[in-house]
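Tutorial, part two.
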Amino acid sequence: MATVEEQKTVFDMDAANMLNKELRDVFASGKTRSYEWRISQLKSIIKMCDDHEEDIADALRQDLSKPELESIVYELTMLKNSCTLALKELKHWMMPEKAKTSLTTFPSSAEIVSEPLGVVLIISAWNYPFLLSLDPLVGAIAAGNAMVLKPSELAPASSSLMAKLLPEYLDSSSVKVVEGAVSETSALLEQKWDKIFYTGNGRVGRIVMGAAAKHLTPVVLELGGKSPVVVDSDIDMQVATRRIIVGKWGCNNGQACISPDYIITTKDCAEKLVGSLKKELETFYGKNPLESKDLSRIVNSSHFARLTKLLDDDKVSGKIVYGGERDEANLRIAPTILLGVPQNSLIMKEEIFGPLLPIFIVSKIEDSFDMINSGTKPLAAYLFTNNKKLKEQFVMSVSAGGVVINDIALHLAVHSVPFGGVGESGTGSYHGKFSFDAFTHKKAVLYRSFVGDAAVRYPPYTRRKLTLMKALITGNVLTILRALLGLS
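Running the prediction step on this input gives:
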């Protein structure tokens, strides 16, 4: 007789429903609302990162061949910074905000109370599996919610490690991790949540939003898009290209939502730009970048095939001016620069999300604005210039989730500004206090006493009451006095 092996519990619709109910019971108990609970959980995330830095870096190496520096700095250190900021500011964030009142409600006082939304669902992405899973979790915890985290199945080592570590360090009755793929995610999406936070692509984003609409659940969608880089002449080209390279290939080999998707420049600047990119790329990654330990691999064979298809497009294959080498067995693609790619090519119809970087030529740099605005709104837009007027025009003319002048992606590290998309690049934002706000309901509270009760509010209605009520609603002292005196 065959040995009966322990079977993994199937996570289906019934299991998702039971999980949702358990979390609602925990939230209803008030456990997650206390300042002490929130603080303890945030401190535990920092401790988990410190205790298991090596394990986390190893999981990221297994999933993406991610360089240790990128793993520790861009995932763990940024995550710990989010926790540290929340620990420092949480008491202030939780305090009711005083609000002004008017003569309409006199005598009265008002405040805005930040209350947790309830039970929330976080669906994460594979490219920065720890940061993009746990950074939203920091906001949800700081706001006092109970939650479910669904890590991406495309980063299995990271997903498995989070499923193991989070119950050891966090309150397992309030913070749950569900591993799995489409069926598990679908089961979760069928439930009613008080907010869904999704990081990923627009195709799945539409599915998430459709599922949320059935329950009128609010969503944050952190998507992506074709983030442009505009390069003006008369700049320090070496510094600009080094920053572009780190923002493109130094961010998970182009597999990042804020990664530069394409460059726009003028003809007289293009040759200088390409030459500088080639030189700096060789300095950073050597003559054979496929062997570089400082470049992540492509996440899986499906994404490798997708990127290969973009490169093999007839309109694109002859435009490679640097790179293009591929190693299918090891899922590696070298940094690749393409010059003079047609705008109607396949590579411009979707977010590249990989190490390919097309460069487009315009007659004058201002023409880049129309080119960018003719497509969907990107998650980020970048400009390299010393021209003050051009900077102002770019900020005013280009609609994007965020804009950075003379660098790439650094707005991610500034917690005092929101990070999020606009239009098809996403809805809602987070980071810093914006993470707290993303999982919080701002409740309006008005306090009145039993004095100052005005008969003008009550029937029977008269013409004089109408005049007085109109004046009171305006809140204008002079208008109210004129009404009381019977003046028109």
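The radius of gyration is 27 Å. In part three we will examine how such features are distributed along the chain.
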